[in-house]
Amino acid sequence: MSYFSEGLDLRAGQQIIPWGKSDGVNPTDYFTAKNYTFLNPDDEVKRTGAPALNFTFTPDNGTSPLSFQLVFQAFYPQTALLIPTQIIPQGMSINLYPNSPSAFQANSMEYGAKLSYQKSNYDFSISAFKGFGAVPEFVLNTSTLSIRPINPGERAFGADASVTRGDWILRFESALHLPDNGSPSDPLFGYVEPDHWDTVIGIERPLFTDFRLQAQFLYRYHLYFDGNPIPNASSPVLNTVLKGIASANATLLNYQHQGNPGTTLRIAYQKDGSRFSADLFFVGYFGGGDDFLIRPQAGFAPVDNVKLLAGFDYYGGNPARPLGALHGDSDGFFEARLLF
Fold first, then answer.
1. Separation between Cα atoms, residue 149 and residue 72, nearest integer Å
2. pLDDT-derived band at 90, boundaries 50, 70, 90
3. Which of 68, 148, 203, 263 has its CA 20 to 30 Å from the CA of residue 189?
4. pLDDT in tens, 202-239
5. What are the DSSP E strand ranges found in the chain?
6. Domain containing 212 — which CATH number?
7. Residues 6 or more apart whose Cβ sits within 8 Å of residue 77
């Protein structure tokens, strides 16, 4: 359901509320998750949301450059990861995906606020969030000796901006994420992802007449980091399992080093009036061993209401790194769409 008046936009119901301006990696995207087990080449199709109340107010009957947005989400959506089997500790039962949260419970509801300012050639926003991390991390249930995933509570504060100058578009997005178990005082410190600051800086511009280039620099910095947590269980077997869980979490959540630089590159081809298009996307990380994903794809529209798409995802690099560990999940894809 939605209600719109001059300067006022109120929406209630199942929603996808993506925040952020960068391509593929969005530090301020607090309210959505992605299902990476759904094999579709379009990352936006993998995005999932939840029942939410989304309120936006723009003063001066909608003409002000300022706008205020408040979001309440009944429960947190959950990211489903591709999990390489080789990182799972041997001899342990493991539940790969957490149970769905209940709506309108203190341990599931999320809140956020955003203040935006927009002009013709630049814009920026600041945001705050209180809720839960969408990406699960694994912990040991000592009573059942099973590994279970949890979505930890989290607070976050972020900002984004973009500037247009001629053919150039400059983008910036950054957020400080403070999970409940991310500080050295927490018993799980070293076994789950600590507090971290994510930043993306990108440029975009046309290239020649039919190409478009987009490049981004990524950096994740952990405020506190323990790359070698010391297990304190009484059993040597449990200590071994705890070390394995710490290693698996570090691989899945990409926090094997205190600082982790990376980059994305996208080159798209689309000629006016042509039925052919192509896109090459690359993302790679370089902290302590390179790993990457490369995704070339090409599209063709034989007639106006039919679109064909083919390509492949290739994961490579260091097999002990998050993307390199997914080498066995590299895949090709073909998609046909009938529009009517």
1. 24
2. low
3. 263
4. 999 999 989 999 999 999 999 998 888 877 777 787 78
5. 2-5, 8-15, 33-34, 47-48, 50-57, 66-73, 93-94, 110-118, 122-132, 137-141, 146-150, 153-165, 168-179, 196-207, 211-222, 259-270, 276-285, 291-303, 306-317, 331-338
6. 2.40.160
7. 31, 32, 33, 48, 49, 50, 134
- Cβ neighbours for 44, distance < 8 A, ≥ 6 positions apart: none
Counting the structural domains of the chain, the total is: 1
138's CB contacts (< 8 A; 6+ apart) are 94, 147, 148, 149, 150, 245, 248, 249, 252
Q: Are 170 and 185 in contact (CB under 8 A)?
A: no
Q: How do beta strands 146-150 and 93-94 pair?
A: parallel
Q: Torsion-angle region of residue 151: left (phi > 0), alpha (psi -120 to 50) or beta?
A: beta
End-to-end Cα spacing for the chain: 26
CB–CB of 275/300 below 8 Å?
Answer: yes
Query: Which pair of tokens denotes residue 47?
Result: 């995005």
Residue 136: name the closest of 249, 15, 260, 226 by CA. Answer: 249
**SS3 category, 247:** helix
Provide the domain limits for residue 54. 2-338
Whose tokens are 């080449």? That residue is 41
Please name the residue that has the structure tokens 């080159």.
267
Using 50, 70 and 90 to split pLDDT, how confident is the model at 92?
A: low
Where residue 39 falls among pLDDT bands split at 50, 70, 90?
confident
Q: Bridge partners of 20?
A: none
Strand, helix or coil at 82? Answer: coil
- Alpha-carbon distance of 318 to 316, in angstroms, equals 7
What tokens appear for 267 in the block? 């080159």
